[in-house]
Every structure is written in C-alpha cells, then in structure tokens.
Design a protein that fits this description.
- The protein is an all-alpha fold and 172 residues long.
- It has a single domain, classed as Rhomboid-like (Rhomboid-like fold).
- Helices cover 70% and strands 0% of the residues.
- The chain has eight helices and no strands.
Amino acid sequence: MDIVTMLQRAPLSVGIIMANLIVFALNHLSVLGAPYIMRPGRLDAGAWLTHWSHLDWWHLGMNLLVFYQIGPLLELRLGPLRFGVLMIALWGLLVGFGYVFGRNPSLGFSGIGLGLMTFAALALWGRGDVGQELLTWVGLNIVIGFLPGVSLLMHAAGAVSGALLWGVMRFI
C-alpha cells in the first residue's frame, strides 16, 4: 500500500508512525532530552513514553517495519475506533506489566509490535497460513528478547497482552 492510500485508509497507523518518528527526532536532537526509559517500579512520564522512544535508527526501523506491516492490516480490519481502543489498551497493559514485573529499564515499540502481531495471528487463524506464519514471527521475536540489551519482559508482555485483547475484543 503506497503512503497516499495508507493515509486515506489507515490514518491512525500513519499517525502512530509519524509520532514514533517525531519522538525519535526530538529525543535525538535533545529537544526532549535523552530517550524516555521505563524504570522499574515507577509510573512517571518514562513509563508511558518509553514505548515511543528508540535507542537508534536500527531500533526504530525494525519496530516501525513490524508496525507498518501489521498496523494498517488491523486498522482496516477493525476500523479506526476499535483499532485505537486496541492500541490504547495494549499500551496501558504494557505500562502495567513494566510497572509490576519490570526489573530492568526498557524502551521501544517492540512490545506493542508483538502485541499487534499476536492479535493479528489469532484474528487470522484458520484463514490460510497467515495466522500460523505470524505466530512463527511472534516466537522468533520472543527469542530475540533473550539477547543482551533486549527486553524479554516487554516482548513477552506484548505477546500476552495481544492474546488477552484478542480474547476480549472478539466479543465486543
């Protein structure tokens, strides 16, 4: 989907991509200071904004690549209102997981990406091989969480949150 079509059909997804890019630019131009980081046991601005902050271009690019592929797909399938509710609920659950279970600082959009990927895999299960393929990617991304400097908690919490929200949103 080209950017004009995406803007027309999935405006919330475009806005989320732009928000990530803007926060990244403002962080790295020192307008907002250093990237916001979730610190264990704290519910401050960092707990909420960490999901929009990224360490470097590679980190930002990988997370936005996942979102670019999954976000518009779900926005088109759910509609902008339900997709917006999904995003806010996912974001809130990840903040909660980080607050309750966090032992190390974390930052980045990958928890949200894993949540959306898991939600999409379950929503598309039984419709060809797409759901199964997405669950393979979910598994690989959880394994990436075991790498040094990568938050296993946020990767796993994203996958768990995506599954929980799929279970709830099926009925509303």
